[in-house]
Amino acid sequence: MKESLDQKRARFAWGKVQGQSSDYTKLAKGAPALIMQSGLMPILAYLRDKGKAHHAALLSHLCEWMYEQFKGRISSAEFPIVMSALMGNASGDAAEHARFYQQATGETLSLLRWIRQFAPAAHGEGGGRDV
User: pTM here?
Assistant: First the structure.
């Protein structure tokens, strides 16, 4: 049976959170709210600007995932390439670009859901909720 997109997200997230710090976990937990408040591109720029290891790691993971999911629109996982693709082409179809930006934002939030769940478990943080 073929792996679902959600299973691919989980596998990717689990691999990326291995060996990350508690600072990475805290950042990943807050990232969805930041994206919802400010937008995807400003948060990617923020992660790049901060320059600390955990910011760089999360930025790299998000850019790599977007590249994997949108190879037709994004030609590399490098930050400037991802940002250019998200910025769009001034002569392109604005409605189509808006759909792509929303799709990229949704995909990033979906990946972050897995990263947020897996990061504490990957380095033994407690604090899980009792069910």
Answer: 0.90
28: CB partners within 8 A, 6+ apart = 17, 58, 112, 115, 116, 119
Would you kindly state where each structural domain of the chain is located, as residue ranges? 7-121
Q: pLDDT tens, position by position, for the chain (131 residues)?
A: 789 999 999 999 999 999 999 999 999 999 999 999 999 999 999 999 998 999 999 999 999 999 999 998 999 999 999 999 999 877 778 888 899 999 999 999 999 999 999 999 887 655 544 44
Which amino acid is residue 70, in one-letter code? F
Whether 45 and 83 have beta carbons less than 8 Å apart is answered as: yes
Q: Does domain 7-121 fall into CATH 1.10.520.30?
A: yes
Pair of tokens at residue 45? 């720029």
